[in-house]
Amino acid sequence: MLIRRETPADIDAIRTVTNLAFKDGPEAQLIDWLREDPGWIPELSLVADGVLGHVVCTRGYVGDVPALGLGPISVQPSHQRAGIGSALMHAVLGAAEARGECAVILLGSPDYYSRFGFRLAAEFGITPPVPDWAPYFQARLFGDVPAGAFRYAEPFNRL
Fold first, then answer.
1. Chain mean position to CA 151
2. Quick one: pLDDT band at residue 143, thresholds 50, 70, 90?
3. How many CB atoms lie within 10 A of CB 68?
4. In terms of Cα–Cα distance, which of 51, 36, 38, 152 is closest to 104?
5. How far apart, in whole angstroms, are the C-alpha atoms of residue 42 and residue 8?
6. What is the pLDDT of residue 48?
7. Gap between the Cα atoms of 155 and 37, Å rounded
8. What is the C-alpha separation between 76 and 85, in angstroms, rounded?
9. How many angstroms separate the CA atoms of 74 and 7, rounded?
């Protein structure tokens, strides 16, 4: 499986796979907004096998400390449960660690994301932007991160 950085030629395919994976939710629009935001990190927008899947991390903060917000991650429904999502997760986490990032934060299923080393963010004293998210708000730390509130890149506030 080939995992590579997104190129401009991939944008339409990323929209398509994201819309399919999220049943035409706001996630594809979010990715477009993120691309135009200062929090966009091109090295952390990855596609798998001809855009059968996509993952992105953007700049967020725990208090004033830079961290990453992961998501959305999407896999074309007809190719789910084939290892594409796992490959994307391993690739983006490896890239984040190699860049010297201190933490990756996400909102998702603890049963799924724990296999990638994520733990509930509350264990580290990191709180979500929306308190109701706490049972699904997770962190993977690569370095020292203070306790505090996490904030995503600004486009997440538009959802």
1. 13
2. very high
3. 30
4. 152
5. 11
6. 98
7. 7
8. 10
9. 17
User: For the chain, what's the residue count?
Assistant: 159
Question: Span 126-132, mean pLDDT?
Answer: 97
What is the residue type of 87?
Answer: A
Distance CA 3, CA 63 (A): 32
Q: What does the block give as tokens for 23?
A: 């049943």
* Residue 9 backbone phi and psi in degrees, to 5: -70, -15
12-68 confidence digits (pLDDT tens): 999 999 999 999 999 999 999 999 999 999 999 999 989 999 999 999 999 999 999
What three-state secondary structure class fits 34?
Answer: helix
pTM of the shown model: 0.96
Write out the E strands in the chain.
Answer: 3-5, 40-48, 53-62, 65-75, 103-107, 119-120, 126-127, 137-141, 148-151
Residues ≥6 apart with Cβ < 8 Å to 36 = none
Alpha-carbon span 42 to 25, nearest angstrom: 23
What type of residue is 106?
L
Amino acid present at 79 = H
59-80 residue pLDDT tens: 999 999 999 999 999 999 999 9
